[in-house]
Specification:
This protein is α+β, with helices and mostly antiparallel strands. The strands form two sheets. Strands 1-4 form a two-stranded antiparallel sheet. Strands 2-3 form a two-stranded antiparallel ribbon. A hairpin with a 4-residue loop joins strand 2 and strand 3. The chain is globular.
């Protein structure tokens, strides 16, 4: 069981979650952050601090967000499908490339009419 970041993070990229991660397993992507599935120690610190409630344990992700479990994994796979182990993220690192499936998961943002 690992932690994953879901759709609420898309285009928000607040990044406060990275400050609470003791093993630096949360990586900035092009459109959102991703949690490395094998580097995560499942402490839950990031989940408690996320301002948009985007982080969940993979077994707690709702059906409508299940694709993000695989997406967080795919962000760290190379072209051969092997897991890339970068060894920790720090501010200023180049962003992780968004997996090609991300655009199909993005729901249009709706605005309130007042």
């Amino acid at each position: 069981m690992t932690l994953v970041i879901t759709s609420a993070c898309i285009d928000v990229k607040d990044g406060i979650c990275t400050t609470s991660c003791p093993v630096d397993c949360i990586y900035e992507g092009e459109s959102m952050y991703y949690i490395h599935p094998t580097e995560c120690i499942e402490c839950g610190m990031c989940e408690s601090i996320c301002p948009v409630d985007a982080i969940r344990y993979d077994d707690e992700v709702g059906e409508e967000e299940q694709a993000f479990v695989a997406l967080n994994d795919a962000a760290f796979r190379n072209a051969d499908g092997r897991m890339v182990e970068p060894g920790g993220w720090k501010k200023g690192d180049a962003p992780v490339r968004d997996p090609p499936d991300l655009p199909g998961l993005v729901q249009p943002k709706t605005s309130a009419v007042g």
